[in-house]
Amino acid sequence: MYMELTTVDEWTRRKRSSTEKCTREMNEPSCCLYSLQVNFERAGWDFIIAPKLYDAQMCSGECRLHHVSTFLIILVLNFRYHDEDEYFEANA
């Protein structure tokens, strides 16, 4: 059994500026984006035909608040100042 996918290039968006790409040698304490190679063959996932390798990427280090989405900031602040059950009842 296999699945065949066809992609269509219709619309593309510009990539946002992301965190700095770092290497282990840099030993950067601030927010950095590291390469995290996933090898599907070595993992024994023979049902994945392509790609054989995938760079999942991993954030590490101390990230300042501006890297977090606005929605998440509002959600955290809301939980901090209100009862959790009260929030879910009001937004159900």
TrEMBL record:
Species for this entry: Anisakis simplex (Herring worm)
Domain TGF-beta family profile span(s) in chain numbering: 13-92
Coiled coil location: none
Keywords: Disulfide bond, Growth factor, Secreted
Name of the protein described by the UniProt record: Growth/differentiation factor 11
Keyword RNA-binding: no
PANTHER family found in the cross-reference section: DAUER LARVA DEVELOPMENT REGULATORY GROWTH FACTOR DAF-7, TGF-BETA FAMILY
Location(s), subcellular: Secreted
